[in-house]
Amino acid sequence: xxxxxxxxSAGPAxxxxxxxxxxxxxxxxxxxxxMSVLESxxxxxxxxxxxxxxxxxxxxxxxxxxxxxxxFLQGGASLQFSMIAINFLGGTEKPADYILTGSWGKKAxxxxxxxxxxxxxxxxxxxxxxxxxxxxxxxxSDDAAYVHFTSNETIQGVEFPVEPSxxxxxxxCDSSSDILSRPIDIAKYDLLYAGAQKNMxxxxxxFVAISDRMLGKAPEQMHALLDYNLMAENKSLYNTPxxxxxxxxxxVTKWLIEEIGGLEQMSVINKQKASMLYDAIDESGGFxxxxxxxxxxxxxxxxxxxxxxxxEKEFLDEAKKQGLCELKGHRSVGGIRASIYNAMPVExxxxxxxxxxxxxxxx
Length: 363
Hints:
CATH architecture of the largest domain: 3-Layer(aba) Sandwich
Distance between the termini: 36 Å
Strand content: 15-25%
Structural class: alpha/beta
Number of domains: 2
Number of helices: 10
Oligomer: single chain
CATH superfamily of the largest domain: Type I PLP-dependent aspartate aminotransferase-like (Major domain)
CATH class of the largest domain: Alpha Beta
Order of helices and strands: EHHEHEHEEEEEEEHHHHEEHEEH
Strand order of the largest sheet: 2-10-9-8-5-3-4
C-alpha cells in the first residue's frame, strides 16, 4: 500500500482503508459483471443490488422503522437547506424554528428565510458558538412547521449530546458530520439528512431519512428533483444517482457492520479518540485553548487555538512533517481543528496527541 498520511480534513474526509482497497480491487470490473460500477447503468440488476444493500445496511445500523423512506440524493446538505424550506415552509403561514449553534446553522437559516418566517429559537453568538443550548433556553413556537438543528457543527466543534425535545413538532436535523458515529433514536426525527463525505462515503451523495408523516406534508406539483415524494416513490432512481458514491456508501456501511460491529462499538472508539485530544488540551496548562465548552464538545471535530497565529502556523508546519495533515482550522474561526471521523484510526489520534505533548514541551 502507498504510504498514507493521517488526514484530519473536515471533508471530504478520510475513508476506511479496507473500503478503498475493495473499491480499487473491483474498479475495472465488479465480480461477475464484466464492467466497472463507474460504467454501470443505474437501472441494471447489479446496481439495484448495490443500492438496495446500502439501504438495508443503513436501516440495520440506524434501526430505521418501516415508516421511513431512505433516499440517496445529490446537492449536499446545502441543497437540503433549500429543499426542506421549499417543501415544508413555503406556502404555509407557520414559522420554522431554527436552533443556531454555528456556521452551518447560519447557512440553513439564510436559505429558509427565502421561503417564509424563521424563528431563531436560540442563538449561540454571544459565546462565539462554543456550546449547545440547555432545554430551558429554547424559545420554540407554538405552531412551528418544523424545528431544525445541526447535530454537530464541524467548524466550531460543538455537538448535541442528545437531540432537543420539541414535543409533537417535526424535528429536522442536519447530521452531516456525526451521522453513523453513534446510535440515535431515529424515531424522534421526521427528517434527518447528511452529506456523505465525512462518515458515510465520498462527496456527491446526500443521505435523507424521512418519515411518512413528513412526506404527507410535502406539497404536490413540486419541481421533480426537489420532490421528496417523487424520489421516495422511485427509490432514488428517478434520475441517475451518483452511482459510484452509492457503491462506496454500501462498502462503508458494510465495514461498520462487519469489521467494527455496529454503532455502539463505533461510539466507544470515537469517544476514546476524542478523549485523548481533549485530555491533551486540558492538561496543557493553557498552552492549548479548547473552543467548545465541556458539555458541548464534539467527538468528531476537536477545535483549539494557541497563543499566537505565528505559533499556530509553526504547529501546523511541524505536524505536516510528521504526516499529520489538514489540521488548519476553518478560515472563519482560525486555530487548529482535528476531524476524527469514524475512519480515522486510533493510531492517528495517538500520534497527534503525542505530537501535541512534544510541541508544547519544546515551546
